[in-house]
Amino acid sequence: MNHVKDYRQQRGLSQLKLAQAVGVARQTINLIENGKYNPSLKLCLGIAKALGTDLNSLFWEE
Predict the structure, then answer these.
(1) Average pLDDT value for residue range 6-24
(2) Nearest alpha carbon to residue 46 among 58, 36, 30
(3) Which of 11, 32, 33, 58 is deepest in the core (most CB within 10 A)?
(4) pTM of the complete model
């Protein structure tokens, strides 16, 4: 479970806009949000930066 979708929606971004910001396909963002793809550390950092948060908030369960 991750919180990418929650943060993306809170910031009013579509999957496509987030994907463009981090340089991946929209489908990659969809797979990450649905827990079907484990992104690289580099991609995780890019997503966190694009969403204005940190890795712990996005990817670690509480």
Answers:
(1) 98
(2) 58
(3) 32
(4) 0.92
Q: Report CA torsion sign: 43, 45, 46, 48.
A: positive
DSSP assignment of the chain: ---HHHHHHHTT--HHHHHHHHTS-HHHHHHHHTTS----HHHHHHHHHHHTS-HHHHHS--
What domains are defined for the chain? Answer: 3-54 (1.10.260.40)
Q: Is residue 28 over pLDDT 80? A: yes
Secondary structure class of 8 (helix, strand, coil): helix
Nearest 5°: CA angle at 21, between 34 and 3?
A: 30
Tokens of 11: 């910031």
The vertex-10 CA angle with 19 and 49, nearest 5°, equals: 50
Q: Which two tokens stand for residue 36?
A: 């079907």
